[in-house]
């Protein structure tokens, strides 16, 4: 059977993984390629890499770091940040990524989703959304609003409407990243994760807030997500004790969450 | 020397990195001349059937690959869309494939979450040099909305369950192809690539 995925997320600045809280106060963790290699050896299911400054600095994504990470990672590898065109996507794929994550750019120019899916296939385009509960009001039936540019700019878009549109345009996966929960270790926002999972037919990835095994299990069961993005729990220096991939998977398997079993090498 | 077919819609670099890790001699092949002297061919793939086939036709590589595979008996490994293009026809974009493996590529039903993305178990149906040692229920990484439905059930070397059983490895003569991404299936996938690199194309 298809198992649920644990995806390690890297917020990369100058080739190094950093860890933020609610999109602020990034602290340095480790070189991206070293952490990627370690997590690959620990049998993480997937890695996602965001060049978090590329968009704001209006520059292209850091392809050197993408390439160096890709050299060590023989599990799927998604890259996002600073992608503005099909040519940008092509360069990232050529550097060794399997999937492209689009976020702010897709809100400004939704057709990039369609173009990317047409050129590289739907499975290649991950629509990442930063969402925040602001209350139900006219034009915002779910009460969750989409934000862009590192959670700084409100778009007026309803989160559920937006992911439906993204799916129609050709997104192959949807990441639901809760701004309020990001880096807080207080658990995923299960309400919006489930609402999105109910609204679309493509896989949904819970993001923002995983601090314990229970949080991850909840995201993958009550939240109805197919995959869970984790970061703090694996490597944040703010955590008293980080957990390893194997430890997490064993604990999830014990809770009847289907996981890829550890392979002896 | 393994030639990894490098075309615009492909993910040749990922396969190249995996072969590099295994210490296997390879080159990315973008022209017919790049196939000279190669003893094995890998056709990787991500993406849509039509874009892949258009890109392959555009590169002028189809004829030279076919000659090496069919006339010279060079062992061939297709990956993901590199499997799907081998069949006669694909429902994706209603496009004709290469027809090396009789059959059709079909879409998963809408009752399932599509694409299938993630690690799923592969059950090997018979002994074969490329899959020996894969073990029972080897978990491999899949990303697919479509799957191969070969006309000859014997062509299915591996099967996987996603709302029903589908063919996840095709094998025929000197051709093997995996629906999953061997280059992205961790130690299990790397071991398969290593066995392919030792295979002489006979079963």
Structure characterization notes:
The complex is a heterodimer of chains A (265) and B (203). Chain A is 32% helix and 27% strand. With 265 residues, chain A is α/β, with parallel strands linked by helices. Chain B is an alpha/beta fold. Chain B has one domain (2-198): Rossmann fold. Chain B contains five helices and 13 strands. A nine-stranded mixed sheet of chain B has the order 2-1-3-4-13-12-11-8-9. In chain B, strands 6-5-7-10 form a four-stranded mixed sheet, with no helix packed on it. The mean pLDDT of chain B is 94.
Can you name the CATH architecture of chain A?
Alpha-Beta Barrel
Give the strand line-up of the largest sheet of chain B. 2-1-3-4-13-12-11-8-9
Strand order of the biggest β-sheet of chain A: 1-4-5-6-7-10-11-12
Question: Could you tell me how far the N terminus lies from the C terminus of chain B, measured between alpha carbons in angstroms?
Answer: 21 Å
Please give the share of residues in helix of chain B: 10-25%
Summary of the model, kept short:
Chain A is an alpha/beta fold and 265 residues long.
Secondary structure blueprint with pairings:
The complex is a heterodimer of chains A (265) and B (203).
Chain A: E1 5-13, E2 16-21, E3 24-31, H1 32-41, E4 46-51, H2 63-70, E5 77-80, H3 86-94, E6 99-102, H4 104-108, H5 111-120, E7 125-133, E8 144-148, E9 153-158, H6 159-169, E10 173-178, H7 190-199, E11 204-207, H8 213-220, E12 227-230, H9 232-235, H10 245-254
Parallel strand pairs in A: 1-4, 1-12, 4-5, 5-6, 6-7, 7-10, 10-11, 11-12
Antiparallel strand pairs in A: 1-2, 2-3, 7-8, 8-9
Helix pairs in contact in A: 1-2, 6-7
Chain B: E1 2-5, H1 12-21, E2 26-29, E3 40-43, H2 49-59, H3 62-71, E4 76-79, H4 81-84, E5 87-90, E6 95-96, E7 101-107, E8 116-124, E9 138-144, E10 146-150, E11 156-161, E12 165-172, E13 175-178, H5 186-198
Parallel strand pairs in B: 1-2, 1-3, 3-4, 4-13, 5-7
Antiparallel strand pairs in B: 5-6, 7-10, 8-9, 8-11, 11-12, 12-13
């Amino acid at each position: 059977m298809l198992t649920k995925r644990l995806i390690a997320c890297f917020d990369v600045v100058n080739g190094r993984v950093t860890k933020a809280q609610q999109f602020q106060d990034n602290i340095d963790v480790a070189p991206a390629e070293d952490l990627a290699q370690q997590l690959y050896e620990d049998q993480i299911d997937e890695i996602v890499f965001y060049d978090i400054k590329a968009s704001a600095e209006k520059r292209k994504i850091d392809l050197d770091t993408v390439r160096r990470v890709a050299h060590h990672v023989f599990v799927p590898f998604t890259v996002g940040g600073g992608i503005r065109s099909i040519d940008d996507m092509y360069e990232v794929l050529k550097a060794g990524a399997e999937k492209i994550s689009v976020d702010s750019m897709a809100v400004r120019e939704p057709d990039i989703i369609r173009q990317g899916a047409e050129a590289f296939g739907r499975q290649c385009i991950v629509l990442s959304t930063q969402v925040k509960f602001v209350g139900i009001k006219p034009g915002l039936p779910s009460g969750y609003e989409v934000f862009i540019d590192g959670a700084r700019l409100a778009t007026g878009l309803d989160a559920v409407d937006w992911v439906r549109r993204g799916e129609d345009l050709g997104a192959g996966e949807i990441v639901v990243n809760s701004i309020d929960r990001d880096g807080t270790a207080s658990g995923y926002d299960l309400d919006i994760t489930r609402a999105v999972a109910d609204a679309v037919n493509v896989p949904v990835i819970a993001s923002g807030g995983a601090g314990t095994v229970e949080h991850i299990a909840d995201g993958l069961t009550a939240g109805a997500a197919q995959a869970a993005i984790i970061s703090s729990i694996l490597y944040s220096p703010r955590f008293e004790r980080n957990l390893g991939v194997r430890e997490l998977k064993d604990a999830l398997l014990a809770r009847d969450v289907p996981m890829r079993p550890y392979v002896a090498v | 020397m393994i030639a990894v077919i490098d075309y615009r819609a492909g993910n040749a670099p990922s396969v190249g990195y995996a072969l590099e890790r295994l210490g296997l001699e390879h080159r990315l092949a973008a022209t017919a001349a790049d196939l000279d002297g190669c003893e094995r061919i890998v056709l990787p793939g991500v993406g849509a059937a039509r874009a892949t086939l258009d890109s392959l036709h555009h590169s002028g590589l189809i004829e030279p690959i076919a000659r090496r595979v069919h006339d010279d008996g060079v062992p061939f490994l297709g990956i993901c869309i590199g499997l799907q293009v081998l069949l006669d026809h694909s429902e994706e974009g209603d496009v004709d494939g290469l027809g090396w493996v009789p059959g059709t590529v079909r879409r998963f039903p809408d009752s399932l979450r599509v694409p299938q993305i993630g690690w799923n178990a592969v059950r090997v149906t018979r002994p074969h040099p490329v899959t020996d040692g894969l073990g029972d229920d080897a978990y491999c990484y899949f990303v697919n909305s479509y799957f191969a439905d070969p006309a000859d059930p014997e062509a299915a070397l591996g099967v996987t369950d996603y709302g029903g059983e589908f063919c996840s490895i095709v094998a025929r003569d000197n051709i093997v192809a995996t629906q999953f991404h061997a280059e992205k299936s961790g130690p299990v996938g790397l071991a398969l690539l290593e066995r392919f690199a030792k295979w002489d194309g006979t079963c």
